[in-house]
Amino acid sequence: xxxxxxxxxxAAVKAVSERNVKxxxxxACGGSMAALSTGDFxxxxxxxxxxxxxxxxxxxxxxxxxxxxxxxxxxxSHSGTTPETVEAAxxxxxxxxxxxxxxxxxxxxxxxxxxxxxxxxxKDGSDAIDGEIGVYYSLIFNILNTVSPNEKxxxxxxxxxxxxxxxxxxxxxxxxxxxQFGSENKREKIIYTMGSGAYYHQAYSFTSCLLMEMLWIHxxxxxxxxxxxxxxxxxxxxxxxxxxxxxxxxxxxxxRAITFAQKFSDKxxxxxxxEFDYEGIDEDLKEYFGPAIAGVVLRQYADGLAExxxxxxxxxxxxxxxxx
Amino acid sequence: xxxxxxxxxxAAVKAVSERNVKxxxxxACGGSMAALSTGDFxxxxxxxxxxxxxxxxxxxxxxxxxxxxxxxxxxxSHSGTTPETVEAAxxxxxxxxxxxxxxxxxxxxxxxxxxxxxxxxxKDGSDAIDGEIGVYYSLIFNILNTVSPNEKxxxxxxxxxxxxxxxxxxxxxxxxxxxQFGSENKREKIIYTMGSGAYYHQAYSFTSCLLMEMLWIHxxxxxxxxxxxxxxxxxxxxxxxxxxxxxxxxxxxxxRAITFAQKFSDKxxxxxxxEFDYEGIDEDLKEYFGPAIAGVVLRQYADGLAExxxxxxxxxxxxxxxxx
Lengths: 324, 324
Fold this sequence. Notes:
Strand order of the largest sheet of chain A: 2-1-3-4-5
Number of strands of chain A: 9
Structural class of chain A: alpha/beta
Mean pLDDT of chain A: 98
Strand content of chain A: 5-15%
Oligomer: homodimer
Number of helices of chain A: 11
Order of helices and strands of chain A: HEHEHEHEHEHHHEHEEHEH
Distance between the termini of chain A: 38 Å
Largest sheet of chain A: 5 strands, parallel
Number of domains of chain A: 2
Radius of gyration of chain A: 19 Å
CATH class of the largest domain in chain A: Alpha Beta
Low-confidence stretches of chain A: none
CATH architecture of the largest domain in chain A: 3-Layer(aba) Sandwich
Largest interface: A-B, 67 and 66 residues
């Protein structure tokens, strides 16, 4: 990892370690919120300090009573310009919380508003450890290791060096199937996604940012534990589902939803995270790396849809084109 | 309120007051989870003890590290038979948490598994204060008043006596529009819902339980703060939205989403909670009563769709009809 990232993360983690932290808040919008949610899930499972995720504007307007000088607020915006998230950083900082901004642009408004900055490299040829996932995982597992030291976290941190090759291998191994999915689903007007645990947020991100935003395909990210309590009644032979079968504690929820969906729909695509190639990753750390790999693999499913629908992922009709 | 409910709530609240509560967990599935989420929202805004909502199976499988003897776990199942929630009650009780079960059936498996039971009357002609909302609000505001006494909460508790007449008046005043909505949307295959704050959970419930489960209409409950970060790109002249314009701190988020949606879709239905009839409710308490009234008003929108699609809300193809 590049020294600037190491230093930024060390400064942020030192601030966390020096505070008597009562709660963590993860605050962002859309895909950035989904990305942060992975960290929230890990914290919730691993340590007994509470954490919670908010979309930025809800955070500011609902004004959580627990927010104060014993809070750590982690914010993220890819460009660092998302106005709601910049506002949330300002709001949290005024309340005395430790604020940590994550962005690709260290000079962005978000990074200027927050006390600590953790920036990542984007599409500049850097190794994945210096990219958004490597840097974020490094921050999260350094925080975990500070709050509740565990040799497991040391191993996660050292095996982040494998991210680049793990990503590349898994992208290669799933590319054909992802484009086949794009071909099979190119005429679909609606595609549901499903997941649970840390993977629910991958489903949410795929639904909101890739299907709805970039492909104009209707969607809803259904939690596999919630599927049977309402949503499953829309299942039919011609209703498509893209379901993430996670690697980790909530996998049994996914298995149950897949079994049902496959019985009544002819269009169920399962992305089985346990079947990914984890060479270089310890067996007991797979549940941490799984969501990261799922993200890069799923991106290819969107590429496949873009290819076969002729609708490039870069096309927008509203975003960046007008005031809203 | 009937004395049995008063006594059940008093016993549960006494248990909360005698514990050094470190966190609240709200655990249920589907519509019951959405109903509990209103309490979670109020707690998050009003007191600095953290709270969090889980779908029951995720709660058990992800095994939150913060769960223990200083936790209060509030669970709900309408029938009290939802297996995942019964399991969650058992799991939480084994961890030493205070467990409070909410159900219409005091003899149900859920009520037997939890340490404390708060039951509500259902369709037996009782006043609304003894129904699901009256009893749940009474529990939540008694807990708030115990943790952080405030004369506001006393007033909420006394004005719960108005629920029945407030519900009846607002149902009457919105019935015609709700059925008009049903007529206008009877051929729609997809209807999006939107909301924020406590109302987001009303949108979620309407999407999962009414549109998807009971009417087999595709849907997704979009948070109005998230709309602009992906989902809004599916907006078009012929895409229907049912948007809750909440009464409370997050109303500005809803206003922004409504303004945008109305600009690009010809099919935007706004349910404005501020326009409800609050006679008998103090001005500063509207934000607490709003979500409750919204729930009963929205139910009529589903009745309107059922009437005009000829698809009764009681019809299921999978639920209760098979093992899953």
